[in-house]
């Protein structure tokens, strides 16, 4: 672990934020209900298809006083897709540039959110109606400190309540309620949806809006399944209220990664009414929605902060009023003004409030125009830092460096 001292110093000087956010402790002792929304991308939010709203419920949340909506929140996943997004959220470390870290380094020592919350008296569980060994979750979850995994076997899956990858989201949330109601509070729970997954199959009777019309069936099918997920989340909010679990919880909804790959750029440019999808547009399409819903809060707003999945662990800890000393992580509390000014994608691209760097080109964040050669310093100043940061995160994973860290436990 010879890199550890430099990594610690980097985290202390370049990552750690000074002071606390105004929202520190706002959700102290509340339950956390985290919804990992499969393939949900930001371009559908407050948008229409064939003149119809795609996500009426989530659109309502963007205007809701109890909700913060982050419009510039990026997924940072690679080949491990959903599992990479889980890894980012729980650890505030980057996934690997190849393979799924859930598989390749599932036995490592981590200092993950479920474990830290466990130290504070939280019970933690994951709800996901897929085979428990998919992505090595049955090994990885206990290692991250999750107390229980309600996998496919916890659900009644029939030919009528399933499609595509398995149990339909509406039935998934409905069947989860009986378990959720038995959990000891406070709890940290993660619900991973499944219906809005490539190739976006949906039964006719579950389609509330029409398919799109383009040369890509993938994009065409995407909109009705996104709407189905929107409805299933709305229904879940109602179920939480009916069960008396809503008021004393915070609900976080986050898209896990893109659903529409660049193979569908032609159809995507048609939908977005653009001549072509530029490398800049491609990066902007990596935005996934993040909603932080705090019942009774009343001060929610739309946030344009440049943010990413790496930020979830410190943000959740701060909302719950939990301080962890000498932790090692690469994200920031999204509600703290003192923030890192960049978000790094796993391929080395990065985003700041002024620039987007991709394909060796520095683009203006607002206009998408390539920045003039004379001004590209703005981006090149960060390229080295970006490599350092990704490298440190990789060092931790490849070297299993947390074996050598004596994390002080709270309490
Ligand atoms: C599998 C589900 C989907 O359990 O999380 O995984 P993905 O294909 O999106 O990575
Ligand atoms: Mn996924």
From TrEMBL:
Coiled coil: none annotated. Its EC number is 2.7.8.-. Its main location: membrane. It is a multi-pass membrane protein. Keywords: Cell membrane, Membrane, Transferase, Transmembrane, Transmembrane helix. Residues 30-322 form the Sulfatase N-terminal domain. The chain holds residues 216 to 626 of 626 of the full protein. GO terms for molecular function: transferase activity. This is LTA synthase family protein. Belongs to the LTA synthase family. It is found in: Cell membrane. It comes from the Bacteria.
């Amino acid at each position: 672990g010879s890199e550890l001292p430099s990594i610690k110093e980097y985290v202390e000087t370049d990552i750690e934020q000074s002071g606390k956010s105004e929202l520190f402790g706002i959700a102290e002792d509340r339950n956390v209900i985290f919804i990992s929304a499969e393939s949900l991308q930001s371009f559908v939010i407050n948008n229409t298809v064939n003149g119809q709203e795609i996500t009426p419920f989530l659109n309502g949340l963007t205007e809701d006083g109890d909700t913060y909506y982050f419009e510039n929140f990026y997924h940072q996943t690679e080949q491990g897709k959903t599992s990479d997004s889980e890894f980012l959220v729980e650890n505030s470390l980057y996934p690997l540039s190849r393979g799924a870290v859930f598989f390749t380094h599932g036995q490592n020592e981590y200092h993950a959110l479920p474990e830290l919350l466990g130290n504070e008296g939280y019970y933690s569980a994951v709800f996901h109606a897929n085979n428990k060994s998919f992505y090595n979750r049955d090994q990885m979850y206990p290692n991250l400190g999750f107390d229980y995994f309600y996998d496919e076997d916890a659900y009644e899956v029939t030919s009528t309540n399933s499609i595509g990858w398995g149990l339909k989201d509406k039935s998934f949330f409905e069947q989860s309620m009986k378990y959720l109601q038995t959990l000891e509070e406070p709890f940290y729970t993660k619900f991973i949806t499944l219906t809005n997954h490539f190739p976006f199959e949906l039964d006719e009777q579950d389609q509330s809006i029409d398919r799109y019309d383009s040369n890509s069936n993938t994009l065409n099918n995407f909109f009705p399944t996104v709407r189905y997920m929107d409805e299933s989340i709305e229904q879940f909010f109602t179920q939480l209220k009916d069960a008396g679990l809503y008021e004393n919880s915070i609900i976080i909804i986050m898209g896990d990664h893109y659903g529409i790959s660049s193979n569908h750029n032609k159809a995507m440019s048609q939908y977005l009414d653009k001549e072509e999808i530029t490398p800049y547009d491609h990066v902007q399409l990596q935005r996934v929605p993040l909603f932080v819903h705090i019942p009774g809060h009343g001060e929610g707003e739309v946030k344009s902060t440049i943010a990413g999945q790496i930020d979830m662990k410190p943000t959740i800890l701060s909302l719950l009023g939990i301080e962890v000393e000498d932790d090692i992580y690469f994200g920031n509390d999204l509600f703290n003004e003192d923030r890192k000014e960049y978000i790094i994608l796993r391929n080395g691209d990065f985003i700041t409030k002024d620039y987007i760097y991709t394909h060796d080109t520095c683009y203006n964040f607002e206009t998408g125009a390539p920045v003039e050669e004379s001004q590209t310093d703005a981006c090149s100043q960060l390229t080295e830092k970006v490599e350092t940061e990704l490298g440190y995160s990789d060092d931790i994973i490849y070297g299993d460096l947390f074996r050598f860290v004596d994390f002080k436990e709270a309490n």
